[in-house]
Amino acid sequence: MAQFFQIHQDNPQPRLVRQAVEIISAGGLVVYPTDSSYALGCQIGDKSAMERIRQIRRVDHHHHFTLVCRDLSEITTYAKIDNQQYRLLKNLTPGPYTFICEATKQVPKRLMHAKRKTIGIRVPDHRVALALLEELNEPLMSSTLIMPEDDLPMSDPYDIRDLLSHAVDLIIDGGYCGLEPSTVIDLEDDTPKVLRQGKGDAGFLESQA
């Protein structure tokens, strides 16, 4: 049965943040809030927790996992970013965007897209998520909490508890999250492409085309 922490979305309680990170560091799978929706998260490279995410979401090995980072400097450790891409990320982070980039050697192979060797990265604009990342001192391996039969992410922490308390180790109630996932932008080629339109406005990319 999952633990259930109510963490204040504007002033996260340090004690609860530390306890949450202890669960993550011990191999736990957590549900946590972001600026777009709730997400599943675990420690980088935790194979067992990663497979649990796959089972919950029923995704295959072509699924793009996301590394949720504290800031832009942490992103550059895990993704190969050129100057033009860096400027784009600087303008859009933190925010409700996920970027698909070529992975660096710091990314465990099992996290990369099986064929393209890419990884999703993002910096959320949410105090609870950022507090977790700061305490963890590394990115969270994450996936949007969209159930297999649904088109939209789960948004109510109590509904999440009812459905997933048997499948995860911790559910963080950070308040109601929206019904839109992050906007996914593919940066692998010279011209950025929107792979999924979500909460983040991507209209500026059309004007650049």
Short description:
This protein is of the alpha/beta class and 209 residues long. The chain has seven helices and ten strands.
Notable traits:
209 residues; alpha/beta; DHBP synthase; 10-stranded mixed sheet; 10 strands
Secondary-structure map with pairings?
Blueprint: E1 3-6, H1 14-25, E2 30-33, E3 38-43, H2 47-57, E4 66-68, H3 72-78, H4 83-92, E5 97-102, E6 118-122, H5 127-136, E7 140-144, H6 157-164, E8 170-173, E9 183-186, E10 193-196, H7 203-208
Parallel strand pairs: 1-8, 2-8, 4-6, 5-9
Antiparallel strand pairs: 2-3, 3-7, 4-7, 5-6, 9-10
Helix pairs in contact: 1-5
Structure report:
- Strand 2 and strand 3 form a beta hairpin.
- The model has no long low-confidence stretch (mean pLDDT 92).
- The longest helix is centred in the N-terminal third of the chain and has 12 residues, at 14-25.
- By secondary structure, the chain is an alpha/beta fold.
- It has a ten-stranded mixed beta sheet, sandwiched between helices.
- Helix 1 crosses helix 5 (127-136).
- The protein is globular, with a radius of gyration of 16 Å.
- The protein has helices at 14-25, 47-57, 72-78, 83-92, 127-136, 157-164, 203-208; strands spanning 3-6, 30-33, 38-43, 66-68, 97-102, 118-122, 140-144, 170-173, 183-186, 193-196.
- It is built from seven helices and ten strands.
- It has a single domain (3-208), classed as Alpha-Beta Complex (DHBP synthase), CATH 3.90.870.10.
